[in-house]
Amino acid sequence: MTSINKTQKKGKSLPPKLIIGLGKFVWTTLWQIMMSKLAPRNQSGEYIRPSSQFRNSVKTGGDSPYQPAAGRYTLYVGLGCPWAHRTLVVRALKGLEDAISVSIVVPSPDSGGWVFNTPEEGCQTLAELYALAEPGYSGRSTVPVLWDKETKTIVNNESADIIVMLNSEFNEFAKNPTPNLYPEELKQKIDSWNEKIYANVNNGVYRCGFAQTQEAYDKACDELFTTLDEIEVALANSRYLCGDQVTLADVRLFTTLFRFDIVYYGLFKCNRRRIQDYKNLGAYLRELYQLEGVASTCDLESIKRDYYGNLFPLNPGGIIPSGPDMAYLGLTQVS
To answer: With b meaning 16 or more CB within 10 Å and e meaning fewer, what string describes 286-305?
Structure first.
């Protein structure tokens, strides 16, 4: 026993303080490098979302090269992405499943980009599809993408534009052409909500999760929950954001609310309150989820896998949580 103790005493370990300091330095440096690629920031450490680059429109008549047609267009989407999810919700509400096809891309944890399970248009990755549409393209390759199979190009990669087109330009081919999610008489109110919700909620959760300073996080978190509280009050006297009918404002809010308790509450540090803790917002989310066709667009496993499994700087261990319990939506299990 004595000889063993003497042997052990000969070995010296680094002081814990030095180990901790070195670990913090290495991890912080690597984290800052990775975050600079994942989430562009300003000098205050606030996340700045880059603008979409393809902004053409499918439009009936006129000289638009992109005319509405059944079978001509494909939506490229990632099931975990809230921006892409918007397009799937509108496609379902309008009954456009037979008119506009969908192709799923998945995030690659190694390359950090979207990839196809099987090649599309001769491409293995979404970046290659972007390069096919615009040779030499070096920007971000994001979803959703509205792809024109006839001209082999990207029509649009801005979700806010695409859902307007799906609402109005494909009614001839829609199973449910009657619902108008962007009626003229409500456009001003819809646009007002969209502007506030985009900045403080849709992008606000990302501004919390991707903040690179305490000050940037505190500002984003305050604005997020101030807006959620305002929506909670508004929904006390209104079934939906703009009255008694579903609009694009509800669609745009829904995809963020659906992910909130699952990933944003924990992974993005948006943990002051859950959506299910709000009386009106919780009921509102449940009603939107239970609209015909909407539940089929929601893939809980993909959402958890895409966020927890692929955002390495936020979850380096890659462990995917088993919860939360989302039974209040009408779901029996989230595993």
So the answer is: bbbbeeebbeebbbbebbbb
Mean pLDDT by 10 residues, the chain (335 residues): 51 74 68 63 77 92 92 98 98 98 92 90 96 94 97 97 98 97 98 98 96 95 98 98 98 98 97 97 97 96 94 89 90 44
Pick from 127, 114, 49, 54: nearest CA to 79? 114
Which residues, 6 or more positions from 243, have their beta carbon under 8 angstroms from its beta carbon? 186
In 118-153, which positions are buried (b, 16+ CB within 10 angstroms) versus exposed (e)? Answer: eebeeeebbbbbbebbeeebeebbbbbbbbbeeeeb
Structure tokens at 82: 């809230």
The number of beta carbons lying within 10 Å of the beta carbon of residue 12 is 6
Cβ neighbourhood burial of 14 (10 Å; 0-12, 13-18, 19+): exposed
Active site residues: 81, 206
| Structure tokens, 18 | 């030095």
The pTM of this model reads 0.90
Residue with tokens 């009936």: 60
- pLDDT, tens digit (0-9, with 9 covering 90-100), for 39-87: 677 777 777 888 889 999 999 988 889 999 999 999 999 999 999 999 9
